[in-house]
Amino acid sequence: MLTLRKRIFIVASIFVLMVLVIVLTILSFSKDEESANEANQPSGGTEFVSPSGGQPAGVVEQPVVPPTQIEVKQTTSEEMQKNAAIQVAKIFLERYGSYSTDNAYQNILDSEVLVTDGLWSELEAKIKGNTNFTSFVGVSVQSVASSLLNWKENEATVSVSVIKSEKRDSETKNYQLEYEVEVVKQDEKWLVDKFFEVEI
């Protein structure tokens, strides 16, 4: 027959065993739940990388604009036309103004494609002049600045500053001159219609 002391020991052992079983069950359940969470969510500082590009899951990638990126301004049709009008004025003055006695009137002939019929009639009349020169003269013209004074869709006035270098025999002189050049648009092409020197 069991003594009271043995009974108490058996009951206490059963109680301890039950508590131990409950604790182990709770620990096992907690460990399974933690493993499931680790499989579905980032934890412990480990970055979860999406398969599309190295960004954390759920993060929308924003376009990165470099701070040094230069905004490129698109050239409009009107700006191109203005530039063409200025360029024909500059080219005409350089071509027409540059000449030498060794190549008489070639500057005028070279300018024909840049001018209207009306201006060409005036320039062509100069070719019939005297070509017997007693000394050498060479002149070159270089445009240094230009701007639009007036602008319309088919006509414009251009201001052009030039440096004129004139060589006579062995002496060379430089001059700064200012011109106003009137250009018109004919058959989608800009042509010089009039030009004259202005006082600086």
Brief description of this entry?
The protein is an alpha+beta fold and 200 residues long.
Protein architecture, described:
By secondary structure, this protein is α+β, with helices and mostly antiparallel strands. It has a domain of 114 residues: VirB8 protein (Nuclear Transport Factor 2, Chain: A, Roll). A 5-stranded antiparallel β-sheet has the order 1-2-3-4-5. The protein is rod-shaped, with a radius of gyration of 46 Å. About 9% of the residues have low confidence.
Note the overall shape: rod-shaped
- Count of distinct strands: 5
CATH architecture of the domain at 78-128 and 136-198: Roll
CATH homologous superfamily annotation of the domain at 78-128 and 136-198: VirB8 protein
Largest sheet: 5 strands, antiparallel
Helix share, percent? 25-40%
Order of strands, main sheet, comes to 1-2-3-4-5
Termini gap? 137 Å
Radius of gyration: 46 Å
How many DSSP helices? Answer: 4
Structural class designation:
alpha+beta
Order of helix and strand elements from N to C terminus: HHEHHEEEE
Secondary-structure topology with pairs:
Layout: H1 4-40, H2 77-97, E1 99-100, H3 106-111, H4 117-126, E2 137-151, E3 155-168, E4 171-186, E5 189-198
Antiparallel strand pairs: 1-2, 2-3, 3-4, 4-5
